[in-house]
Specification:
Blueprint: H1 2-31, H2 52-64, H3 90-98, E1 101-104, E2 113-116, H4 130-135, H5 148-151, H6 160-163, H7 174-183, E3 200-201, E4 209-210, H8 237-252, H9 256-302
Antiparallel strand pairs: 1-2, 3-4
Helix pairs in contact: 2-8, 7-8
Length: 303
């Protein structure tokens, strides 16, 4: 009996293990190849917070590199000074907004005109319309940066899709991990791979062929220096893409820190309320329960 039980347990383990391996492989195949590595982000988790210095560097990368093609239509200049974000000062935001030209109007003559930006304005797009953006980028307009970190994701297969949805330990940073991976995934195609003109090989992009050329290289963006005259962080593609991905996560959810703080207070309130309600219930029903038990002997006698 013991041997048969052992054999049955072994067969069960093998039957469970095979789907795990095959599901992971199928998830990788569905994604189109390499799975983006999971990175550590300061804002991840219930108590995570954005790194303000990283957000400022990420905005610098967006402004100097990405904004030439990608719009950020849902973000106002003034959002950069709000609590929980890059924490620029109001004077910095005002000066930054003034460097942009924003279309406004109509004026008294019924004509549209351009003026310097104000903190209440949204970031103006690099192209006048989607058709112009598509014409300048091989027939397809570059996606807007505002919610790209939430729109991009990938499947990790069973059983991870279950654990990823769990509270407190869930994994909701697929978007920034994917963005970081794609920006670091440009490389020479494997031997025998046919790459058409105007397309580039990327080991993390689904299907491996991407129209966007490699947008950034080491040393392209000059970061602030420390007292020793050295960059505060390495000026590498890996660091640039970590910073801009974190900035994109903030742009997609600029009030994430306030939401987390409110959620924590609500959970704490519900815990206290549950304890109070339980105590009140015990006090209210204590006497009622005693009276019911006290009637039981009389009921038995009556029977």
């Amino acid at each position: 009996m013991k041997l048969s039980s052992l054999l049955a347990a072994s067969l069960l383990a093998l039957s469970l293990g095979a789907p795990l391996g095959s599901s992971a492989a199928s998830a990788e195949d569905a994604h189109g190849g390499n799975q983006p590595p999971r990175l550590q982000w300061s804002y991840a988790g219930v108590f995570g917070r954005f790194d303000q210095a990283q957000l400022q560097r990420g905005f610098q990368v967006y402004k100097e590199v990405c904004s030439a093609c990608h719009s950020m239509k849902l973000v106002d200049f003034r959002n950069l000074a709000e609590e929980g974000g890059p924490d620029f000062s109001e004077s910095q935001v005002k000066a930054l907004a003034a460097t942009y030209q924003v279309k406004d109007g109509p004026n008294d003559a019924g004509e549209m005109f351009e003026r310097p930006g104000r903190p209440a304005d949204k970031f103006p797009p690099p192209f006048p319309n989607d058709q112009a953006a598509a014409a300048a980028n091989g027939g397809k307009a570059p996606p807007d940066f505002s919610v790209l970190a939430k729109a991009r994701t990938f499947e990790r297969g069973f059983p991870w899709f279950i654990t990823d949805a769990l509270p407190f330990v869930g994994y909701s940073e697929q978007g920034v991990d994917y963005i970081h991976a794609v920006l670091n995934g440009y490389e020479e195609p494997p031997k025998g791979t046919d790459v058409p003109d105007g397309v580039h090989y990327n080991k993390y992009y689904p299907g491996h062929l991407i129209a966007m050329p490699n947008p950034i290289s080491d040393g392209q963006v000059t970061y602030p220096k420390n007292e020793a005259g050295q960059p505060v962080v390495p000026e590498t593609v890996d660091q640039y893409t970590r910073d801009v991905a974190a900035f994109m996560a903030w742009a997609a959810e600029p009030h994430m820190m306030a939401r987390k703080a409110l959620g924590f207070r609500v959970i704490l309130f519900l815990i206290l309320l549950s304890g109070l309600l339980y105590y009140v219930k015990k006090r209210v029903w204590a006497d009622v329960g005693g009276e019911v038990h006290g009637l039981q002997p009389e009921l038995h006698k009556a029977g």
